[in-house]
Every structure is written in C-alpha cells, then in structure tokens.
Amino acid sequence: MLTVWGRENSTNVKKVLWLLDELGEMYQVVNAGGAYGKLNEPLFLSLNPNGLVPCLQDDDFILWESNAILRYLAERSGNPDFWGSDPRQRASADKWLDWVSSSLPVPFRQVFINLVRTPEAQRDMAAVKNGMVAFEKQWAVVDAVLAKQTWLSGEEFGLGDIPMGCFAYAWFGLDIERQSHPHLERWYQQLTQRPAYRKRVMIPLS
User: How far apart are the first and last CA of the chain?
Assistant: First the structure.
C-alpha cells in the first residue's frame, strides 16, 4: 500500500492526498511535520534527507518533492485524464506544476503567514501589500488562460489544476479585498464541486 508522510494541512501534502483521492488509490497517512514532529528523526531522514514533507513510499520506492510525486502517481495510475499519451497535451498541463512552484510561494508566505499565523500587532503589512500585488499579477495570468479553456489542464480537469487549486483555496479563504478575476472564480467554483477537493483541500486554514 502507498504511504504518505506529512501533515494534512500542509499545502504540498494536500496536493498529493487530493490526487490520490481523485485516482481512487488506497493509501495510508503517517502524520509528520508541524505539531507531529518526526522530521528530524533518523527514520524519517533516512526517507527524505531534506527533512520535509510530503514523502511517498511505494513498497521499497521512496520519493520526495511534491510535484515529482504528483507526476509519478499520475504516470503510475495510467489514467489518461491525469497523464495523457499526447506529449503536447501532457506538457500543457504539466507546465502549471512548475509555474505555481516558481510564482506563488513567495507572495503566499507574505500574505498567508502574516494574516493567518501572525498576531495582528506583529504583522508586516508592507509585506502583505507586496504579496497582494504579486498575487493579483499572477492571478491575472491565470484568468486570461481560463478565459480560453475550462481547466488549466485543458477542457478536462487534470494534473495541471491540482497545485493551483491548493493555493486558490487559501486565497479565497482569506478575509481580504480582491480584484475581480471572473474566469479564475468560475474555475475555483468548479473545484469546490469535486468531493476530493472538499475533503483534502477545503479544511480550516492554519
């Protein structure tokens, strides 16, 4: 059976658990990271020397880095909805995994860490402002793409929608004033209708 090490409220762990549920895979979760600890213990470091989650065990095969895990699970499943045989279709969806990783984590930390995890009196509102500007710029890119297609993966939901979906939930869950991005908002509402998304991503922000 597949084993995922990680805490369920981690953005990167959410990605993996969401895909596993979409694929209908059987798996178990070993709570690790945050309040659960374990990341500096010899057993976990023997699996992932970086001391980070998620980490996937598939029998004797060990894999870390969340996007690598997503690609592996999609390939392993053979499900064409998540890892099609056409290289152009696959690449068009796959690019979003890298785009999200390079474009959203910094503004996410600037906004989320300050507004969710930092007491109000200690918040760096200049960082929040900078993060909001960066987010709106990136959402405009996404909105323009979604004006032309139903999903980031194309006309059907797929792998390319998963990393962005985790950040989108945090964005729309914050009590902030946002610019209007109607195609992004339509896409997000589509996500909220997916049972696996509601189960694995739409949990309290913490």
Answer: 29
